[in-house]
Amino acid sequence: RIRRERRRPMRAHFANAMDVFRVDPQLERYQKHLQHRWKAYEDAKARVAKDFGGMDAFSRGYDTYGFTRERGCVVYREWCPSAKAVQLIGDFNGWNASWCERKEFGVWELKLADGADGRRAIPHASRVKVRIQKPDGAWVDRIPAWIAWATVEQGKMGAKYDGVVWDPKGDQKYEWRNTRPKKPQSPRIYESHVGMSSQDPKVATYREYAEQVLPRVKALGYNTIQLMAIMEHAYYASFGYHVTNPFAVSSRSGTPEDLKYLVDTAHGMGISVLMDVVHSHASKNVDDGIAGFDLGQKEEDNYFLLGEKGYHSLWDSKLYNFGNWEVRRYLLSNLRWWMEEYQFDGFRFDGITSMLYHHHGINVGFSGNYEEYFGMNTDVDACVYLMLANDMLHSLYPDCTTIAEDVSGMPTLCRPVHEGGIGFDYRLAMAIPDKWIQLLKHVRDEDWGMLDIVTTLCNRRYTEKCVAYAESHDQALVGDKTMAMWLMDAEMYTGMSVFNEASPIVDRGMSLHKMIRMVTMAFGGDGYLTFMGNEFGHPEWIDFPREGNGWSHQHARRQYNLVDDQNLRYKFLNDWDRAMQELDKKYGFLNSSHQIISSHDEKDKVIIGERGELLFVFNFHVSNSYRTYKVGVGEPGKWRLVLDSDAWDFGGHGRIPHDCDYFTQPEGVPGKPETNFNDRPCSITLPLASRSVQIYARVPEGPGSLEAVAGPEP
Asked: Is the CB of residue 434 less than 8 Å from the CB of residue 483?
């Protein structure tokens, strides 16, 4: 039997032990490491308070650095301690030198007074670069590290980016209309890449996404969107993960004001907006990005670590020096910038595993042994940075959501900082999509192990929340395929018409696509995520324009026309996804700590479990249906079908009646749980259709009844 019940959170206590030890006594063996980590965090906070005016001031570096305004002047400041000299060049001075003055702590400063007529010394939308004299005397042009926008000359192959001073006034400046929505109890996330969100082979814009995709998200019932590739990245095919300009909005899809329109529109629909933030590494592109400030100087004067420590061999990118105070200021301010300037509601932190360990997870398999998490391989500087980041975000923005992309499963990652944890709200349940791909690629349906599936779904730390997903963008990248494509392959092109009977391949594919999503959502975590298009079984794969594909956008788009065509079966998969979101919206099962898998029968290929108020019954058998199947339940009374994947409305066969109530029978001897049926005190007898899932809810006593969302009878 697989159970999960959360304990109540403890109060903060740091006399002899931290509360993480109370939550998980096994951590006491690693008390020295965890207390060393805690002390490093406490020391960092104390220094921020003493030397930098507190976290609020420290994390608003953009008020001082980059381009700001002070008393009728444009002021430019840049931290570049190894430079021998610094000039600012751009449209405003005809690309001739305006010399900066060296100040304390390696900061360079330039003040330019506005004109007598009030015109700003550097007008809005002016292109700029900073020209730096390296220690060896050579001069190089770079984009300012705090730049808010960077553009490239369109149509010019190999053109370099220019920084752009973004300082709109009057009608040019976006006026916010909506407030942030309340933090959802459980995030139901629609992961999106704005650039590839059009059904046309092109780069879509922020405004197009707001006007064409957000209404779909709202109609489906997702309460959160997660936007990828927002931070500027010179190489489009990097999927946004080789960031060049951390403070800049990706210019391919529009201006900063256009992004504000997208976020504001989502908020007006009650949808929270998370951003994919990349602090785990940076593009090594020195011409267009932050890497250009690595001039070969010593580590304490550098944004990045030196030598092998500062290079990620798999990603071919540079690694930040998280122990450096100016790097901490830069990255913490980066988070504040996106929260303040663009009103994001939180972040999905990319590449957390790489940050947590000196080995970056490269060629390392994590077994769950605690020795793997707490020792010399752990990067305490990175852990302290993440603790500072989460503490800052949750203190200043109580409704902020932070999600860690971590494959290692490090304990304490998603416990509050005040308990001694690293402070994330959720981690991504990354083993789940890997399991589904492994089964689809290598195991016959008849040989799927029910315990294998259940173990993967439930193998998580019950005191730390997870976001479950069957597939994200990762599973569909070139060299792989979407889950629907693995299930139906070429028949997605020829067998999806509603006017023809579904072939066995299409019938199997649609049935399993619905079941896989539902069992993942039901038992895999405390939130749910899908990548845009996968809600309706998007075909094919993702491949961004690159030299190897002739710079084609053919596979860097979303074919929403397929689901809009009422003559194609994609609509059934889309409607099922909407019903899943509605189910959680109504019953709140994702937020429930009550989760019990009462049966995982290998012979019958049946999984039965409870989550919140609901009973989930999955029959994965390839052909066997069961007219009367005994199912254990935790509550006595009358149960009613509320969702059925085999309903006609979802492209099913209508084999389960929707007009019946089911009454429980007591099981076992009162007071002797071992005599119960499958460890449950009651049972009901239900019909089960092959390759389908049914969800039941108990009908409350008294007047009124539950409102079914199962779909009508044929």
From this structure: no
